[in-house]
Design brief:
The chain has strands spanning 2-10, 13-24, 27-34. It is mostly beta strands and 51 residues long. The chain has a domain at 2-34.
């Protein structure tokens, strides 16, 4: 398992985002993403990981 913290820059500051990823052979699975809420929506979308 891999655990990492990513920092997301926003107009109001930096938000830490935690992620736990499991690798099994050639496959990767995101087990957990953690962050906290803000008063407004900062983004919306999908994550594409090339394989």
């Amino acid at each position: 398992n891999l655990a990492a913290t990513v920092r997301l820059g926003t107009p109001s500051g930096v938000i830490p985002i935690g992620a736990t990823i499991r690798r099994d052979g050639g496959d990767s699975t995101v087990d957990r993403i953690t962050t906290y809420r803000t008063a407004r929506r900062l983004m919306e979308g999908s994550v594409l990981i090339p394989g």
